[in-house]
Amino acid sequence: MNQPFNAIAKNYNLLNDFLSLGLHRVWKKTLVEAMSEELEKNDRVLDLATGTGDVAHLFLGKLSSSQVFAADPCEAMMEQGKRKYNGLTQWLRAEAEALPFPDGFFSLITCSFGVRNFRDRSIAFQEIARTLVPGGKFGILEIHPIPTGWKYLPLRLFWKFGVPLWGRGVRQLRAYEYLRDTAARFISPEDMVEELKPFFDVKRKESLIGGGLVTLIIAEKR
C-alpha cells in the first residue's frame, strides 16, 4: 500500500489542491472545528493516515505539540510534513489496525481521506475505539464513488480523465490511477455508517460536495 504514496509524496499536497480545486483545505478546517467544539486543555488528539500532517497541524492552535499525534504508514509522506510543519513533534509510523497506544489514550481521532486505504476497516475501527476515551470522537473526511445522474457527469469525466492527465504530467500515472480507483471502488457514506455502528454512534453525517462524493462523519465511541 505504501508504494503509491511513496511515489507521490513530494506532489501530494499539489494533488489535493488539483483534485479538490483547493476545497480540501476548507473541508479539513471544517473537520477540525467540528471536532474541537468540546476540546479540553488536557485532551490528546491523533490524526490517522496523516500524510504530510496538515490536519494535525490545524490542532496546534488549540493544543500543545505534546498533545497532538500524527501517524501514517508511509514514512516518505511524513518526511515531507516534518519539513513543512516543524511545530508538530509527535510523528510515528503506524497503521490503523495496530495502534501502539494504550486503551483510552485519546479524546479525538481524525482521519482525512485515509479510511478507504485501511487494510481491514473493521479491525481499524475497533482499534480506534479502543484507544479513545469513553465518549471520545472519531472524525472522518472521505471520498466516495461519484453518484449517478447527469448533473455529476462533469465530475465523472474529470475523475476519469483529469487524474491520469495529472499523473502523466508528474510521471506517476500508476500512483494517481490507484488513488482514483480506490475512491471509485469504495463504499457509500451510508455503508460506512453501518460499518461504524458496532463501535460508534454517528452524530453527524454531512455531504460536503457532489451529493456525497466527499462526506464528513463524526462518530462517538459507545
Sheet with most strands: strand arrangement: 3-2-1-4-5-7-6
Beta-sheet strand percentage?
15-25%
Number of helices: 9
Q: Count the E strands.
A: 7
**Shape category:** globular
In quaternary terms, these chains amount to: single chain
Rg for CA atoms: 17 Å
- In percent, how helical is the residue content? 40-55%
Distance between the termini: 30 Å
Following the backbone from N to C, one meets helices and strands in this order, namely HHHEHEHEEHEHHHEE
Mean pLDDT: 86
Uncertain runs are none
Structural class: alpha/beta
Instruction: Please identify which CATH superfamily we are dealing with.
Output: Vaccinia Virus protein VP39
Sheet with the most strands, sense and barrel status: 7 strands, mixed
In the CATH scheme, what's the topology name? Rossmann fold
CATH architecture: 3-Layer(aba) Sandwich
Describe what this molecule looks like in 3D:
The protein has one domain (2-146, 187-221): Rossmann fold. The protein is 41% helix and 23% strand. It is of the alpha/beta class and 222 residues long. It is globular and about 50 Å long. A seven-stranded mixed β-sheet has the order 3-2-1-4-5-7-6, with helices on both faces. Strand 6 (200-209) and strand 7 form a beta hairpin. The chain has nine helices and seven strands.
